[in-house]
């Protein structure tokens, strides 16, 4: 009976120690600005444009984040019969895996890779074009330079999405563009 009590006590002590070592999730907020660069056939339809957005992240482990983002791109479409402004809204969820490289003075460099998916909506101002929404997937590369609770972020995303033409009778196609963003991140602890 004494051996069983010792084994149970050791198991409880080990579980308590492991629980104490596990960190609770840390919330982050990440406003950003940058540029949206259409590539391939998408470049024939849209101009380069600024992008603005906000990410919310949860740091599950020091090197793993769950991320949600909302991005707005005020662009201009190049349809021959209706060259006008278009608002592109992108909303997505994803995950990031980072590699922590400490520097002196409390600084950390955190290069990361990410993947995710969501949707993209095109809101055309031209009355002759209808608004469209379609699925989106992305891959991301970047780095974060962190000191304490605040970090400076640089991120490049390759967005792959189905593009539904606002013109009737044109089938949807797979398209691509690149987003480059600079932002800050604040970690709530």
What does the model show?
This protein has 189 residues and is mainly beta. Helix content is 11%, strand content 63%. It has 1 helix and 9 strands; from the N terminus they run αβββββββββ. The protein has an 8-stranded antiparallel β-barrel with strand order 1-2-3-4-6-7-8-9. Strand 6 and strand 7 (132-147) form a beta hairpin. The chain is elongated and about 60 Å long.
Task: Give the topology.
Elements: H1 2-21, E1 26-38, E2 49-61, E3 64-76, E4 85-98, E5 101-102, E6 107-124, E7 132-147, E8 150-163, E9 173-188
Antiparallel strand pairs: 1-2, 1-9, 2-3, 3-4, 4-6, 5-6, 6-7, 7-8, 8-9
Structure, briefly:
This protein is 11% helix and 63% strand.
Considering the chains and any ligands shown, give keywords for the structure.
189 residues; mainly beta; eight-stranded antiparallel β-barrel; 1 helix; 9 strands; 63% strand; elongated
The helix-strand sequence is HEEEEEEEEE
Query: What count of helical segments does DSSP give?
Result: 1
Multimerization state:
single chain
What is the averaged pLDDT score?
A: 87
